[in-house]
Amino acid sequence: MGQHFPIIVDWGTSNFRAYRFDARGLSEERRAETGILKVAGGDFEGALRAAVGDWLSEESEVFLSGMITSRNGWVETPYAFAPATLADLKAQVVEKRLDDGVTLRFLPGVARRAPRPDVMRGEEIQAFGAVADDASAIVVLPGTHSKWVMVEHGRIADFCSMMTGEMFAVLKDHSILGRLIDPAAHEARPAAFARGVELALSSAPGGFLNHIFTARSGVLLGALEAADIPDYLSGVVIGHEVREGLRIAPGRGVTLIGDEKLAARYKTALALAGIEAAIGDQRATVAGFEKLAAHG
Amino acid sequence: MGQHFPIIVDWGTSNFRAYRFDARGLSEERRAETGILKVAGGDFEGALRAAVGDWLSEESEVFLSGMITSRNGWVETPYAFAPATLADLKAQVVEKRLDDGVTLRFLPGVARRAPRPDVMRGEEIQAFGAVADDASAIVVLPGTHSKWVMVEHGRIADFCSMMTGEMFAVLKDHSILGRLIDPAAHEARPAAFARGVELALSSAPGGFLNHIFTARSGVLLGALEAADIPDYLSGVVIGHEVREGLRIAPGRGVTLIGDEKLAARYKTALALAGIEAAIGDQRATVAGFEKLAAHG
User: Fold this and answer.
1) pTM (2 decimals)?
2) Nearest CA among B157, B135, B102 for reference residue B291
């Protein structure tokens, strides 16, 4: 019966993706543009029914994951504290019954405690999907708020968020570092990227707050060209993420999951740090959901 | 005669300050609101004459320092590379003769070379003014782009810029970290500031890009209140500056020069790092100019 073949909705800030499973695994996938920030008037039920209303019945086992479970989403769920297994996540779902009897199961986020409190919602499923059962790895999910997730023998042992993508964007768009950039220039400058990474990885004094400033001072002193700034700055910021990430769990295998171009940048930065990273399966989310479904 | 008693103009982005010296030292000081970004149509000569026209003659020895000597100012000067003395700075002035015979002497900035290129324009004079002749100290000038200046026996041995003030502003105003802040709340939270500093000073993994994120995750997990965010985030950012600054020149005396409230924050952060900092003379700029004048 349907209740053993779940429907899983990965509902983030910008995107909506839904997956239906049957006895052989994934049977259908649908996408919509209705990320939680784009749902008019907060009518999440309307958006869900518009996308997958024909899948839903009283017997459906529907899981929702991602920012839809956050304070700005539909139903805010608590956090499962690391270390956490997939079974721990399922044990903490928050159920909501719709008027027609359809039951929705909102998954918890994953958190770690002070003095370095941290949170994620959604990436944990991708991390489970990226690592074979019972294997151990660092799964790196680059992005606005990158996540480094330590998966050990089927559980998330620990994780760390870094505001890398957002940092790059605010520095480029809102700080003095962006002012020397020619907005018409879009040529890739891989050598500038590598220089930025190398400065970040070095033991050069000054740290992050100084190293980013060299994107400006380097141009003023002729050590960089203005067209180098975006890739150089990207290298400094990603290099700092990689340096700190590798401090958390040195010597382990790293698997990168995410946008292809961004993952390639991280692979380069990790190589400069002496780490050969694997680019993980782009379908880690689905693989994670398949595992979640299998943990009936 | 006048040529031995200089006029010195400290002309920055936001402010204009002019000092006239005579045989006994400073004889008169004038201020104007015409920082270089506020000079209509780039008429710097008009702004100078409006403020101190009655001081100027063919015999005047007029020095200009600060962002007026930058690419966005009146006359762009080169940089003196550290290590640099006051005499080195005077040796590299760029002269400009006005139509009526008044000669202006634009001072160079100070720079350091790649792989950690760095620049300053104006702070070097304050650093000279903050340290007794032939003494050695670290002079810290907190601000938008804080400077840590190593003064050794009458010369600037080295220095380091950190984008601390600008970082705090862009994170608060343009990143997700600002979104939980209640704009109406302005209560000071010194305990939150100290917690932020302590996280930054600790060897906690994750580094800057993670530590700033705890301003958000801490609130989501109940470890911080939303009203703590501004002071906590200020503590994290200043704490990182202090941690890196002390790596550059550990164990030396630190003198703070700058805005009283900001200097007090830095004094607290330095104390948490075990360093008893002196709050320097607010008139370090004038003291520096007096030294410059004396090096006739």
Assistant:
1) 0.93
2) B135
